[in-house]
């Protein structure tokens, strides 16, 4: 979505210490007597608040009964089955093929829809290219590697790192400070800047409490109220469409949270991190990886984000099975038995290992019978609705002050704090960010509306949502005489983005532990509720879960391999 502020880039989330799912081979060794892991009872984990019971298409399909005749067996047993061909499932499959071919000889990716990509949906029509889900990604090396391995790196496009980000505050679009302009910038008052600076170095802040803090508590304590209300609160809308009074700082913005924990203050932690990196430099970067421009950039592809899942899907070929809906998962003889509805009728696949990359509520539903404790934990994660509204205006409709001296609007977009009387969460200036998004002379704007604090969008029509966004844009960005926009696309996501509330990490741990308890070795829970919601985090999580799966397969193979023949020296003793 959108985002903004300081060192945090628009459209990025950074969940904490990503949780790896049930590598039960390793975890079993960690279990104490009686099979409990660390003796923690899952009943002590508080369940996050749930929203109204809205059902998504994937959820409905997963729950429909199996029909259509006898269940046929799918050929040979697979080493791994990945459930879901969103960006996580696809990138994990790519990593299994390209990085772990030695350990993983066979795998399938199964997807309930008839296209790959999950949330990543690009549309093209009448000279417009627009996104219905995510708009851009933070180009970390995992995403760049995926693009390279899928053969679409040449199509990458990057946003101008000097592009401005705006926050609407007290009737004005104000630039988000980005480095040198932090002192002169008018988004924060002088006192707000002093408070933030003193807090960041640890001179003016309360010590961290023993209990888990919300984003609001953490930021107000460390950086003061202004940074919270003017930067971080809108940023939470931009990344999570969420409520910062409920999101956990540790789970939702773990990379920032850990700085204070490790260094006593945010600056102390950052300095420690720099030193740590200097002492233990990362391995040299693969010279074949594309190099994005330096600074706060974001990435996409010339023809939109769906280029990446489409390219991965094409390179994986028949390993991806579309319109396959997982209906049931069973453990039989130490293996997994997965039952699908497919266009050819019900099919059963047997596998050594399974990776769930579906939304958590789908995994919860599928595990409810065999692992009720995992079901209740995974089902507790809340996904609010979000509407994406794409409108096009003539360029002349945009207020003159938005144009630079070169006659261009060099900006990423704008965010709207909930206190400022604007319903729309944020707007991305799609056609100023990436080339070729709309016909010449037009300006394409992608806005998001809804989220945790405005679930009422589910009762509104698409026309009403577009009208609301247009009304908001007139207050902030458009000239008074701007003509009516062209509505390019509207999509309402009934269950959009998982919220990392207080207790999120513990709930994930409890779900994994319940799976281990139930003997579900080699089952991995992955996807955005695990790795972090930003695409870059999902891809990083995909490569990590592929490492874990490969390790599991290697351990399995070593356990089932015949004993190695004794060495010739030893033989001479006995023969
Ligand atoms: C409106 C919106 C805007 C966003 N904006 C941004 C942004 O600008 N930048 C950014 O970095 N991130 C953004 N995100 C977040 C990001 O898009 C997601 O976190 C990410 O795409 C999730 O990928 P995933 O593969 O983990 O899950 P998903 O994309 O949800 O994939 C899961 C897949 O599992 C499939 N599935 C479900 N049930 C079954 C079943 N029973 N059998 C088989 N398959 C099944 C689903 O059909 C789906 O394809 C946005 C998200 C939304 C919704």
From TrEMBL:
Co-factor binding comment: Binds 1 FAD per subunit.
EC number: 1.3.3.4
Cofactors: FAD
Stretches for region Disordered: 1-71, 274-301
UniProt superkingdom: Eukaryota
Entry GO MF terms: oxygen-dependent protoporphyrinogen oxidase activity
Leading EC class: oxidoreductase
An annotated GO BP: protoporphyrinogen IX biosynthetic process
Pathway the protein contributes to: Porphyrin-containing compound metabolism; protoporphyrin-IX biosynthesis; protoporphyrin-IX from protoporphyrinogen-IX: step 1/1
Family to which this protein belongs: Belongs to the protoporphyrinogen/coproporphyrinogen oxidase family. Protoporphyrinogen oxidase subfamily.
Name of the protein this chain belongs to: Protoporphyrinogen oxidase
């Amino acid at each position: 979505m959108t985002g903004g502020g300081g060192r945090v880039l628009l459209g990025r989330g950074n969940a904490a210490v990503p949780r790896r799912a049930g590598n039960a081979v390793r975890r079993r060794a960690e279990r104490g007597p009686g099979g409990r892991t660390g003796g923690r009872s899952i009943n002590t984990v508080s369940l996050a608040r749930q929203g109204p019971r809205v059902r998504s298409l994937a959820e409905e399909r997963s729950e429909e009964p199996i029909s259509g005749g006898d269940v046929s067996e799918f050929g040979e047993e697979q080493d791994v089955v990945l459930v879901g061909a969103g960006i996580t499932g696809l990138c994990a499959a790519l990593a299994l093929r390209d990085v772990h071919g030695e350990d993983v000889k066979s795998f399938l990716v199964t997807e309930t829809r008839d296209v790959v990509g999950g949330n990543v949906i690009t549309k093209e029509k009448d000279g417009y290219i627009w996104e219905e889900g995510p708009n851009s990604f933070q180009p970390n090396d995992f995403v760049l590697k995926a693009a390279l391995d899928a053969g679409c790196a040449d199509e990458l496009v990057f946003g101008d790192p000097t592009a401005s980000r705006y926050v609407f505050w007290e009737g004005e679009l104000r630039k988000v400070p980005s480095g040198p302009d932090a002192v002169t910038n008018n988004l924060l008052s002088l006192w707000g800047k002093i408070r933030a600076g003193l807090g960041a170095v640890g001179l003016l802040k309360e010590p961290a409490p023993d209990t888990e803090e919300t984003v609001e508590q953490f930021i107000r304590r460390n950086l003061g109220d202004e940074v919270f209300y003017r930067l971080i609160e809108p940023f939470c809308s931009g990344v999570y469409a969420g409520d910062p009074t409920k999101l956990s700082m540790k789970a939702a913005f773990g990379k920032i949270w850990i700085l204070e924990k490790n260094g006593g203050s945010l600056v102390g932690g950052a300095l420690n991190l720099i030193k740590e990196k200097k002492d233990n430099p990362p391995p040299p970067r693969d010279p074949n990886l594309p190099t994005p421009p330096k600074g706060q950039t974001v990435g996409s592809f010339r023809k939109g984000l769906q280029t990446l899942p489409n390219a991965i899907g094409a390179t994986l070929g028949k390993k991806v099975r579309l319109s396959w809906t997982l209906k049931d998962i069973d453990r039989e003889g130490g293996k997994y038995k997965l039952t699908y509805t497919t266009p050819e009728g019900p099919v059963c696949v047997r596998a050594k290992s399974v990776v769930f990359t579906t939304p958590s509520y789908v995994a919860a539903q599928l595990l409810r019978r065999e692992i009720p404790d995992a079901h209740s934990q995974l089902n507790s994660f809340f996904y609010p609705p979000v509407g994406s509204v794409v409108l096009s205006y003539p360029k002349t409709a945009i207020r003159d002050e938005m144009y630079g001296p070169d006659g261009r609007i060099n900006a990423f977009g704008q965010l709207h704090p909930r206190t400022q009387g604007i319903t729309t969460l944020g707007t991305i200036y799609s056609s100023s960010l990436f080339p070729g998004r709309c016909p010449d002379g037009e300006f394409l704007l992608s806005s998001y509306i809804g989220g945790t604090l405005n679930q009422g969008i589910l009762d509104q029509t698409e026309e009403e949502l577009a009208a609301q966004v247009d009304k908001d844009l007139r207050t902030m960005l458009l000239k008074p005489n701007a003509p009516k926009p062209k509505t390019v696309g509207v999509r309402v996501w009934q269950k959009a983005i998982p919220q990392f509330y207080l207790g999120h990490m513990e709930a994930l741990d409890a779900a994994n532990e319940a799976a281990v308890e139930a003997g579900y070795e080699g089952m991995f829970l992955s996807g955005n509720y695990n790795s972090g919601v930003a695409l870059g985090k999902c891809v990083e999580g995909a490569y990590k879960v592929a490492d874990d799966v490969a390790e599991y397969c290697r351990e399995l193979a070593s356990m089932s391999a015949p004993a190695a023949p004794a060495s010739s020296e030893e033989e001479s003793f006995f023969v």
